[in-house]
Structures are given as C-alpha cells and as structure tokens.
C-alpha cells in the first residue's frame, strides 16, 4: 500500500473538474437512535480506510470531492455526518448552533465520531487500518477522537480547531497526529497552534505540525475567496504521504 504516496497534484487538479468522477453512495446510518446520512466512496475490498469529517456547513459536495480524490488514490472513504440526516445549515447562525451544540456536548461528539467509524465496518471498511481526518470543525472533531483514544492509524486536521477543552488531554492518544494549518488564520491563531505543539510534546504523542504562509482559515476550500492554491496542494501532498506511511 505504500505506493499510495502519490496523492499527486495532477490528480488534485483533475478531481476539481467533476464531482461525479467516481460513483459514491449516500448511506443512512443510526447513532444512539438518530439518523445520519454519510457518503461512501469505495476503492476496493482490501483498501485502507479514511474517515472524513465535514466543516461547519455539514456534509456537502466539497467533502464528496475530497472523498473521491482519495478513492482515486486507492482508499475507501466514508464521509461522516455529524449533524443529522437532511441537516446542512446554510446560514451562519445555524452553523454556529449545530457546531456549538456538539462543542457543549463532548460525549455526543465522541459517540458520533465512533459511531460513524463503526458503521463503516458494515460497508466493508477496514476499521483496523483507518485514518481519521477533517476540515475546520471536522478537524476539531478529529482531535476530540484522538483525545478519546479512538483506535486509528493516524489523525489529520486541515485548518481545524486546535484548543483542548478543560479537563481533557492527549494521554489516551494511540496514533500520530498531523496538523496542517494556515499561518494567516485569524480564527485559530498561532498561539493555539503553539499550545497544541507544546501539549503533544509533553504527552509524547508523535506529531507533525505545518503552517503555510499567507494561508487564512479554510484555505483548502475550492472556489472561495479564502482558497490558496499553493497551500492546498502542499498540504494535500503531505497528507498523502502521511496516509501512505501509517496505513498498510
């Protein structure tokens, strides 16, 4: 599986042409009595698994594109839904409400992350050979799972929330962490970045943390005024290398 190191920039560009390049499937699943609607993109029966977590606007075409890009490189991908079936908030206040509710209820957030990963087993996903990754809010959810001791080969966050809630730590984290961040991010500051680095070093969690100059928050979001092509391509390449290094 090491050949998957080539999450190349050529494929990054080609994947933008069409969200329908590969045929993924919508999947309804249940966590603690509530329905959620994720997206399954399959490369093969023996492929490593990536659990992909959405931004604060819910599971959209953006995450589906990223899932398909990963599948083109030989990974099975499940894009999780942490808000609920049919909940894709468009207004800023609604996005704040849904993310805020989960930030306030960390037990529910952890249950949703674990439930999403567990569900992939029913789809044929290899949960013993999985990496968990996310964007913005999804990045914060990924780090929540790392602190919870989720069994995974690695955790990766793109411009995600980095602060550790009071009373939590990385003492139970069992896999390396990759943080890909924008130096010009004013929503999640370099002070928070440095604090996380200090905390991970103190708890001896293997980690790599990279910042990209001039990159603001959400620098990977295609077709937005925040998009920074150079930072997106470099971070995507590094993520591909990370995937290849930790999966079998």
Keywords:
single chain, 248 residues, alpha/beta, eight-stranded mixed sheet, 7 helices, globular, disordered N terminus
Structure description:
This protein is of the alpha/beta class. It contains 7 helices and 8 strands. Strands 1-2-4-3-5-6-7-8 form an 8-stranded mixed sheet, sandwiched between helices. Strand 3 (49-53), helix 2 (61-72) and strand 4 (76-79) form a beta-alpha-beta unit. Helix 4 crosses helix 5. It is globular. The protein starts with 8 loop residues before the first helix and ends with a helix.
In short:
It contains seven helices and eight strands; from the N terminus they run H-E-E-E-H-E-H-H-E-H-E-E-H-E-H. With 248 residues, the protein is of the alpha/beta class. It has an eight-stranded mixed β-sheet, with helices on both faces.
Number of helices: 7
Beta-strand portion reads 15-25%
Question: What is the H-and-E element order?
Answer: HEEEHEHHEHEEHEH
Count every beta strand, where a strand is a DSSP E run of 2 or more residues: 8
Rounded to the nearest angstrom, the distance between the terminal CA atoms is 5 Å
Low-confidence stretches: 1-22
Biggest sheet strand line-up: 1-2-4-3-5-6-7-8
Specify the helix fraction band: 25-40%
Rg from alpha-carbon coordinates: 16 Å
Q: In terms of structural class, how would the helical and strand content be classed?
A: alpha/beta
Based on Cα principal axes, name the global outline: globular
Q: How would you characterize the largest beta sheet?
A: 8 strands, mixed
Give the mean pLDDT: 92
